Class I SAM-dependent methyltransferase
Amino acid sequence: MTTLTAPDLLGQALLDYHGGRTAAALTVHCNAADDEPLPAAYFFRTLLQMPALERRALDECRGRVLDVGAGAGCHALELQSRGFEVKAVDVSAGAVQVMGARGVRTAARHDLFAPLPADERPYDTILLLMNGLGLAGTLDGLDRFLAHARTLLAPGGQILATSSDVSYLYEDEDGALVLNLNGPYYGEVEYTWTYKKQTGEPFPWLFIDAALLNDAAATAGYQAEFIDEEEDGQYLVRLVPVGLAEAANQAI
């Protein structure tokens, strides 16, 4: 019996761009918004091309960094240039191949919930950019990730992540929210990639508003600090496990 594997469309697009096909672009399908193109070039942006929230997040990094959902490695490369020890991970095999070719020293294929290898020290910073909390997929997935992240973090460690409030997608012409109160949380959406006439498997993505994240973080035993926010509702948050923070302070 042959097992069919979903195509790595993101990886294909990144490999094509890295190989010189600068027009490579995915099409993003979302059940809550219109289709839109996503140029592969966006994953190769330089520091000056990054949004202000991403640049701020890089400035807030400390210690050993785990860059989750690293794509083509633009953040990992910038942090390396600043002297950080960085491990960059992504579920896309093609992305990991591109990161290695671009000079990311430690790149591996892992998902959000991969356990810490027995021979690997915990991290001081877990970095989740490009609406990186979306990798959790759902509110339940976020709870699961926050519990799991404690096993990846050193005492005094932090999660630096971006997300967005997408309630504006559900506003009527008068600006009032039109939500199905009996349905799932409005920030739980479904995405699909298309590239070179191939369509990948749907995957869940989470956009969580700041108030709900603050509640989820508190329930999971984290202190949430909202560092910065942009006009479109996207924000940068620092999450610090309370127990780990206290252990670090007692050790000083």
About this structure: The longest strand covers residues 153-164. DSSP finds seven helices and twelve strands in the chain.
